[in-house]
Amino acid sequence: MKQFVVIGLGNFGYTVATRLHQIGHQVLAADSNATRVEHTKDLVTQAVIIDAKDKSALAEVVTDTIDAAVVGLGDSVEASLLCVLYLKELGVKRIIAKASSDDHGRILESIGTSEVIYPERDSALRVAEKLNAPTSVIDYIELSPDYSIIDVATPDDFVGKTLKQLALPKKQGILVIAVRNVMKGGEIQLLPPADYKFEPDSIITVIGRYEDLNKLTI
Predict the structure, then answer these.
(1) Mean pLDDT, rounded, for 179-200
(2) Could you give the angle at the alpha carbon of 132 between the alpha carbons of 135 and 179, nearest 5°?
(3) What are the recorded GO MF terms, alphabetically (predicted)?
(4) What confidence score (pLDDT) does residue 187 get?
(5) What is the radius of gyration, based on Cα positions, of the chain?
């Protein structure tokens, strides 16, 4: 079990905090808005009202023993920057912060933020990529400008054949990392072996170069 502090309980911070607690971690959630704190308090370990621009207030709830702090104050650049600065001065080693713009992100990086997140931009890019992909693509994750992961309905010409027979890495430059059987309640086969035989009504998760994945979905 890890310990996290999430500061700023807008949609981004609320989702991060409640999900971390849901999967078993200790989460202290903080916001200056009493309504947001009240809305979150039963879904995390502890929720407190705090002004992120007040270093002494932060020092009362944040210690250098936490595994990471998440700053979701992208709507207030001043509060976001001061909060990150104070967290660093309090000895927090890993700080992940939401940025509302490229300039905001660059300043966060310049003061030592471990990781800067652009949730709105990333979501928009993901939507654009999904719209650009063939309709058979169910989900899409870009790993880099060259490589992606997609969920796609198992092609008809795969059904009844094994991975070994298809030789996808050699012939198509792609790798199947999971198969989900829709007719068996979503049963998942991770890293299917070479003798795995594809069935109809299944979804495969595939990693590869964009151009190779695109051939798979044509």
Answers:
(1) 89
(2) 50
(3) monoatomic cation transmembrane transporter activity
(4) 86
(5) 22
- Where are any strands of DSSP class E within the chain? 3-7, 26-31, 46-49, 68-71, 95-98, 115-117, 137-142, 147-153, 174-181, 187-190, 202-209
Structure tokens at 48: 């407190």
With cut-offs at 50, 70 and 90, classify the pLDDT of residue 217: low
User: Which residue from 202, 130, 206 is spatially nearest to 174, judged by alpha carbons?
Assistant: 206
- In whole angstroms, give the CA distance from residue 94 to residue 41: 24
Q: Among candidates 166, 153, 171, 216, which has minimal Cα distance to 193?
A: 166
Q: Are 208 and 147 in contact (CB under 8 A)?
A: yes
154, two tokens: 């198992």
What average pLDDT score do residues 112-122 get? 89
Please, are residues 71 and 86 in contact by the beta-carbon 8 Å criterion? no
Instruction: Write out 30-42 in H/E/C secondary structure.
Output: EECCHHHHHHHHH
Beta bridge partners, 150, equal 140, 206
Q: What are phi and psi of 132, to 5 degrees?
A: -75, -25
Maximum pairwise Cα distance, the chain: 65
E strand or H helix at 20: helix 11-22
Distance CA 115, CA 96 (A): 5
